[in-house]
Amino acid sequence: MKNLNRYGYFFIAPFWLVFLVFSIYPVALTFYYSFTNYTGSGEAQLVGLANYKRLLTDTYFVEAFFNTWKIWGVNFVLQMGLALILAMIFSDMRVKLKGIAFFRAIFYLPNLITISSVALLFGILLDWQHGSLNMMLMKLGLISDPINWLNEPTSAQLSISLILTWMWFGHSFIVVMAGVSGISKDYYEAALIDGANRWQTFSKITIPLLKPILLYIMITSLIGGLQLFDLPMLLTDGIGSPDGSLNTMVLYLYNQAFKYNNYGYAAAVAYGLFVITLIFSAFIFKGMYGKERKQPRQV
Amino acid sequence: MIGKTAVDNSLSNSVQKKSVIETKPKRKISIPKLLIYTVLIVMAIVCFIPFLMMLVNATRSNEAILSGFTLLPGSAIVENYQTMMSYINIWAGFKNSLIISVLVTLLSGYFSALTAYGFAFYVFKGKNAMFVFMLVMMMVPGQLGLIGFYELCKNLGILDTYIPLIIPAAASPFVVFFLRQYILTTLHPSLIEAARIDGASEFKIFHTIAIPIMMPAIATMSIFTFIGSWNNYIMPLVVLFSPEKFTLPVLMGFLKGSQVAQNLGSMYLGIAISVVPIMVAFLFLSKYIVNSISAGSIKE
User: Fold this and answer.
1) Do A101 and B196 make contact, defined as CB atoms within 8 angstroms?
2) pTM of the prediction?
3) What is the longest distance spanned by two Cα atoms in chain A?
4) CB proximity A130 to B under 8 Å
């Protein structure tokens, strides 16, 4: 029977063929380009570390880095806050809420919609003078003058953060709830008998046991957030107006490559983005597991 | 499985249940509970109101939208549709997106199952190294190879075709990883041995025994693969040039820069057409999708 093991290669061969050609090779080729001055046509000339030196002093890239962080950070705090509060409410044994399936579905719905449609929709909903959002808020008496959402740097960034929150809090809520449902009911019953209040139950039982799930949400959200592209691309003129406040790292990469034909430099931007993602993922991991040398619970 | 927390009812069911409770005089709803429900309902409205505005405005004329806000539908939907269709053919984008997403889902499902089975049930040289390498590559963000990918497609002459959007799906490390974990716990090697003794070939065993057992996990992953492909924007944006080949998300971007943008009613209608089918599909699949997200995040 031993000789059947060679079949293993047949089973994994198609995967590796496609993987090498369409994933590994492009990543390697991009790495090579990051050391050249390639412009999309003609010969690529090696320029050493020039692209990376430029990257470190490029104010646009640094600005894009901070923009991306601001937009992602505000969104993440809001999104996780909402998800955790909702999870706390729905997992509370004293108030047995009905309709979790309904609320879960409604809260999750925005996540399913194509981001480019979302961007386009908010582009016209948030319009300064003719947008339905301003008109509605004014009709409700919440604001007296229309807010120029997308034309002022701070409010433009905030708008994107809020749209991202709107899109993602339902998803985080579902994932957190999945983690909560994996926690044994015995803990909660014991806490109830011991007279723990809601906050104690939540902070002493739910949160510590949810650590692996929270880590998962944080890292996937960070990786996704650092790749923010569709919304700023379609909500603005494509280069991150107003005042470059919506210029994110991937938008910068895209424009450098496909708008200005600086392929070599754009390749360096891609690797810069990759290194940043790695560093921050490692930080999060260490921050959550560094202090206590405890094995994460396998759910 | 997961998601058995409280009430796993369908949308309408849970709404009905709630109203039943409210009309029952015996079971009083406490004030904090009422407050919580109010907040939840407000949140649900906030979640839904952009879509509601979209649907309402899709039926209103440009002038009506510019003049004021209402949640009452208008009567200009036919004109809006005609204006939109005179500039872009949204159904073509729909068809393109559907073709690509279906093929991507099939390719990803089949080849990932094949690879997962190979990794799970055979012993061969370099297996572990290859698996670890695959896991490491899983961490690499898609944009990293974007420029190299574009150059590769240019040199292969497959720019402005669907090949670069479809074929790479045959190598989906995350799906392989998920399916491998799944099949290791669900398919016992003795079953394979028994089939071998009965004279079944290796690929026959895979197709008739392994695939059916893996089907629930493949279905779970297929949902994400399909949604991911359907919503993908940057890849088709980079790879496709001809408007008639555009996928729905790229077409949406194209819509923004076109003459249609002058007519808000038509814009809203175009967006609505791109959104409503997904909402309808979600209405039927919501429970399944929600459970899949739970399963996907917990299995890791």
Assistant:
1) no
2) 0.85
3) 80
4) yes
Which amino acid, one-letter code, is at B111?
Answer: F
Q: Assess A223–B contact: CB distance below 8 Å, yes or no.
A: yes
Amino acid type, A275: V
- The pLDDT of residue A288 is 74
Chain centroid to CA A83: how far? 15
C-alpha to C-alpha distance for A246 and A260, rounded to whole angstroms: 18
Banded model confidence at residue B299, pLDDT cuts 50, 70, 90: low
The closest of A136, A153, A79 to B50, measured between CA atoms, is A136
Whole-angstrom distance, CA of residue B53 vs CA of residue B104: 33
A115 touches chain B (CB under 8 A): yes
Total beta-carbon pairs less than 8 A apart between chain A and chain B: 323
Q: How far apart are CA B267 and CA B284, in angstroms?
A: 27
CATH code matching the domain that covers B89-257, chosen among 1.10.1330.10, 1.10.8.60, 2.30.30.30, 1.10.3720.10:
1.10.3720.10
Structure tokens at B45: 């409205």
- The residue of chain A with its CA nearest to that of B32 is A95
Which residues in chain A are closer than 8 Å to B148, comparing Cβ atoms? Answer: 25-33, 267
Chain A residues with CB inside 8 Å of B11's CB?
A: 101-102, 105
CATH number assigned to the domain covering A43-113+154-289: 1.10.3720.10
